[in-house]
């Protein structure tokens, strides 16, 4: 059984058929990269995998849950618990420290005692080489450090899967390489599963599978 199974995903905006029937199976512990020309539909597909958007047709199963049969409220809870997101622009909250930002999904989730949330946040920031930056505000961190805080935030609730959309798109090449290595380290050490949309061919080449999207279809 796959960790994630998407089948027959179709989505249109107005008369534009952006996704034309896409299937994707992802195994536990896999790192899958999706590449393709601008406008191919990669972000639209990733948003659907992340339950941020609903398809017109098709199904997504994550850990055996048929996600879109859930009501919006249940889906929001499921998303917070099971899915970690990393975007090109990290969207850290400017008035909160690195630690507070990393802990945010734990506070939203509301199931873990605060002590445990803080413990997990500190452990993750430590793992990501940010032990000495926990009490800094985002504005006091470099771009690479900010993106690593976003990675810690994505991992806080121990998600089943992390979805990343151009995660290194805003980083210089050195920081990009470090971030990419971090993904594989997390996979190797914790079995974390990733689906990553990227234009970065070095990252795509390192992935277990490099899939190509074109005009709303998955080519390989
Ligand atoms: N909310 C929206 N309303 C209307 N059209 C949209 C919307 N979101 C995306 N589109 C269109 O859908 C198509 C696919 O967009 P998408 O962002 O999924 O592509 P992409 O492959 O991720 O591109 P890029 O590599 O440039 O990020 C594009 O033609 C885009 O203009």
UniProtKB/TrEMBL annotation:
InterPro entries in the cross-refs: AAA+_ATPase, ABC_transporter-like_ATP-bd, ABC_transporter-like_CS, ABC_transpr_LolD-like, MacB-like_ATP-bd, P-loop_NTPase
Signal sequence extent: none
Gene3D superfamilies linked: P-loop containing nucleotide triphosphate hydrolases
GO molecular function: ATP binding
Coiled-coil intervals: none
Listed Pfam families: ABC_tran (PF00005)
Domain spans labelled ABC transporter: 4-219
UniProt keyword list: ATP-binding, Nucleotide-binding, Transport
UniProt xrefs under PANTHER family: ABC TRANSPORTER ABCH.1 (PTHR24220:SF86), IMPORT ATP-BINDING PROTEIN (PTHR24220)
Name of this chain's protein: ABC transporter ATP-binding protein
Species this protein is from: Dyadobacter sandarakinus
Taxonomic lineage from the root: Bacteria, Pseudomonadati, Bacteroidota, Cytophagia, Cytophagales
């Amino acid at each position: 059984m796959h960790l994630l199974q998407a089948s027959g995903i179709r989505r249109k905006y107005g008369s534009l058929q952006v996704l034309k029937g896409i299937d994707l199976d992802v195994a536990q512990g896999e790192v899958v990269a999706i590449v393709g020309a601008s406008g191919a539909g990669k972000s639209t597909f990733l948003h659907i995998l992340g339950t941020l958007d609903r398809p017109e047709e098709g199904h997504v199963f994550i850990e055996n849950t048929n996600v879109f049969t859930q009501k919006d409220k249940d889906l929001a809870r499921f998303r917070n618990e099971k899915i970690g997101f990393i975007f090109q622009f990290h969207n850290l909250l400017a008035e909160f420290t690195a630690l507070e930002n990393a802990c945010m999904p734990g506070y939203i989730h509301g199931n873990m005692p605060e002590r445990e949330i803080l413990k997990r946040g500190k452990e993750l920031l430590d793992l990501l080489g940010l032990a000495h930056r926990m009490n800094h505000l985002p504005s006091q961190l470099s771009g690479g450090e900010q993106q690593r805080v976003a990675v810690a935030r994505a991992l806080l609730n121990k998600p089943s899967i992390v979805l990343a959309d151009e995660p290194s798109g805003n980083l210089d090449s050195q920081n990009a390489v470090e971030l990419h290595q971090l993904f594989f380290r997390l996979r190797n050490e914790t079995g974390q599963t990733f689906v990553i949309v990227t234009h970065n061919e070095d990252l795509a080449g390192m992935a277990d599978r490099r899939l190509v999207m074109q005009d709303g279809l998955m080519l390989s």
